């Protein structure tokens, strides 16, 4: 406990009873405004108040304290009155200022009230003006729309004098076509627009438009007829005239179609008739020019089983058949299928080179010409004549065609042409190509059966020679069969395979009959072995030629030459390089294709694999000769990196030999 706390002593406790007890009713009887009701409750509520607690702690009586307070209040009132008196002048001045402010504010209130009234009036006027503005804007928009439609109507229906002059007196040119387009729009406008039909202006304009339409149709008709007559003139370049004139002025035809239907049909018929005759003449002349380039391959006497010694050379006008194996061998004629989409022959250029072609080359050119022309909607109508010319030509050629290989090539050409037209999405030649294909197959079958019957009906004693070497009939058969097998590789024609089987049985039967004419069994066996071996050799060679023709051709014609000799055309690296690189890039793939061909072409698996083995062995010999030739060429060592090693080829051969 601190000293202060000790001096202060214990905190006095409020004794409400002492104070309340001293208050008597009589003491406050004079006060009507004072009520003591609830005093005790208030004292209880304020006993914790700090001010009350301080007063009680001083021991002052409540009445005394009340008197002190009243005295203080009176003094404060007197002081306040004194201060008010001192400031009376200022207060008067303040009162005057307040009064002046009230006057000014009243004036401002009146002025603002006037402004408010005027603003309300202006707002009403603005609203009215806004409504009028919107109404005027709508009217303006409607008037502009009406003006635009009216202007367009006037523009579409009016006939400018310049247009009349051009239609009536102008020449048919680009300006004339532009004017025709304007006239066409006006004609369509008066015919289709419903507003025009109710317009009084139509009565004035329509007669003039009709006169212009009739004049334009007449002038365009005369122009087209003039150009069509130019097509009929001799030595006219039809293609140039079509592209530079008819195609350029194609709109005049469209104008006729839309506004001169009867005249359009007349022009269309005239064009079809003109082009029909012109193209028929051109194609007939083209075919006649091609016929001069035709190389005769076979006649009715050129059959596998015909004895060449019994046919007169004077009657045939050709060399003996056994020296003309090209009749039965496909050879390079297969290239026509690789060049199926090349340009057609140009007769005068081909004739200048004095070169002759098998008929299938001419056949491809004629149909290539038709394919490149087949793009018009009028194709069937225009080409009725040219089709007739080609049909007439084929009907003349096919009955005299005894070239079975050529016929099969033509069948394959038609098939390839059908694929080309399908890729081009041009179906207009479908029915024609089907028709040609249907006409080729029966002819091929007839010629094939002639070969078959020549074997079946062959005079064995006439054909027999006292010689065990391969018979020429067997060589013909081998070459003929190899050619047809090659032409069937990518097509898988089962009917052709059946026919080849019939041919094999016939030649096998004939060969056995020929062998029996030898007196000694040994000679009979040797004769059969030699002929069968020759057949395998031919098939082997044909199998190789299909995939390695450039290599074989070079080895046979050039590899035996001495590169260092002073010949006219010595062997160079440039000549050999394409052959070496081509072989290096695809020899494995080519052998795989040969294997697949053998598997699909020969029903006797062992026989086919024997032919494949022989072909691969021969390929190795050809490539060995090419490699030896490379060593003798100056600078040939530069190609050593592209040469395939002999061991690699032998490994590949052994790999296929394991499948035996």
TrEMBL record:
Keywords: Golgi apparatus, Protein transport, Transport. Pfam families: Vps52_C, Vps52_CC. Coiled coil: none annotated. GO terms for cellular component: cytosol; GARP complex. It is found in: Golgi apparatus, trans-Golgi network. The keyword Protein biosynthesis does not apply. Its main location: Golgi. One of its GO terms (molecular function) is syntaxin binding. One of its GO terms (biological process) is retrograde transport, endosome to Golgi. This is Vacuolar protein sorting-associated protein 52 A.
């Amino acid at each position: 406990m601190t000293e202060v706390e000790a001096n202060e002593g214990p905190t006095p406790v409020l004794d409400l009873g002492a104070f309340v007890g001293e208050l008597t009713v009589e003491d406050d009887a004079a006060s009507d405004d004072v009520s003591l009701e609830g005093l005790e409750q208030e004292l209880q509520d304020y006993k914790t108040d700090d001010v009350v607690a301080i007063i009680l702690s001083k021991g002052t009586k409540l009445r005394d304290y009340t008197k002190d307070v009243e005295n203080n209040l009176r003094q404060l009132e007197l002081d306040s009155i004194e201060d008010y008196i001192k400031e009376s002048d200022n207060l008067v001045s303040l009162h005057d200022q307040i009064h002046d402010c009230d006057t000014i504010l009243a004036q401002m209130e009146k002025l603002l009230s006037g402004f408010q009234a005027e603003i309300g009036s202006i707002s009403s006027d603005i609203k009215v003006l806004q409504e009028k503005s919107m109404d005027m804007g709508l009217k303006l928009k409607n008037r502009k729309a009406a003006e635009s439609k009216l202007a367009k109507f006037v523009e579409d229906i009016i006939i400018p004098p310049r247009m009349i002059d051009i239609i009536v007196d102008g020449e048919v040119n680009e300006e004339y076509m532009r004017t025709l387009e304007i006239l066409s729009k006006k004609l369509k406008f008066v015919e289709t627009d419903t507003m025009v039909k109710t317009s009084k202006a139509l009565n004035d304009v329509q007669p003039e438009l009709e006169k212009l339409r009739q004049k334009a149709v007449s002038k365009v008709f005369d122009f087209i007829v003039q150009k069509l007559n130019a097509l009929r003139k001799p030595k006219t370049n039809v293609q140039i005239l079509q592209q530079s004139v008819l195609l350029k002025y194609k709109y005049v035809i469209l104008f006729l179609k839309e506004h001169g239907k009867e005249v359009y049909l007349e022009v269309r018929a005239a064009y079809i008739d003109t082009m029909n005759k012109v193209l028929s003449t051109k194609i007939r002349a083209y075919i006649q020019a091609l016929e001069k380039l035709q190389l005769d391959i076979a006649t009715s006497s050129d059959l596998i089983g015909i004895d060449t010694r019994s046919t007169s050379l004077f009657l045939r006008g050709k060399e003996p058949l056994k020296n003309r194996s090209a009749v039965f061998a496909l050879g390079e004629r297969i290239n026509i299928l690789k060049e199926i989409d090349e340009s057609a022959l140009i007769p005068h250029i081909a004739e200048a080179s004095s070169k002759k072609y098998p008929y299938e080359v001419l056949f491809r050119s004629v149909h290539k010409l038709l394919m490149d022309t087949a793009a018009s909607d009028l194709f069937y109508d225009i080409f009725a004549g040219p089709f007739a010319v080609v049909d007439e030509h084929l009907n003349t050629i096919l009955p005299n065609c005894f070239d079975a290989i050529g016929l099969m090539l033509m069948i394959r050409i038609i098939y390839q042409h059908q694929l080309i037209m399908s890729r081009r999405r041009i179906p207009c030649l479908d029915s024609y190509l089907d028709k040609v294909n249907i006409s080729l197959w029966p002819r091929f079958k007839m010629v094939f059966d002639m070969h078959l019957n020549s074997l079946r009906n062959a005079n064995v004693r006439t054909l027999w020679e006292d010689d065990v070497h391969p018979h020429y009939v067997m060589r013909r058969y081998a070459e003929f069969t190899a050619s047809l097998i090659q032409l069937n590789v990518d097509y898988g024609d089962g009917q052709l395979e059946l026919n080849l089987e019939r041919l094999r049985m016939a030649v096998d039967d004939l060969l056995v009959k020929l062998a029996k004419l030898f007196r000694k069994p040994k000679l009979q066996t040797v004769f059969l072995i030699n002929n069968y071996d020759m057949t395998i050799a031919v098939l082997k060679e044909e199998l190789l030629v299909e995939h390695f023709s450039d290599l074989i051709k070079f080895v046979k014609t050039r590899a035996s030459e001495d590169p260092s000799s002073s010949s006219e055309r010595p062997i160079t690296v440039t000549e050999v390089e394409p052959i070496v690189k081509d072989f290096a890039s695809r020899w494995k793939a080519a052998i795989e294709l040969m294997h697949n061909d053998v598997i699909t072409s020969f029903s006797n698996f062992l026989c086919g694999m024997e032919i494949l083995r022989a072909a691969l062995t021969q390929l190795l010999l050809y490539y060995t000769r090419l490699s030896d030739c490379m060593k003798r060429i100056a600078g040939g060592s530069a190609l050593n990196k592209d040469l395939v090693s002999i061991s690699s080829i032998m490994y590949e051969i052994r790999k296929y030999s394991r499948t035996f």
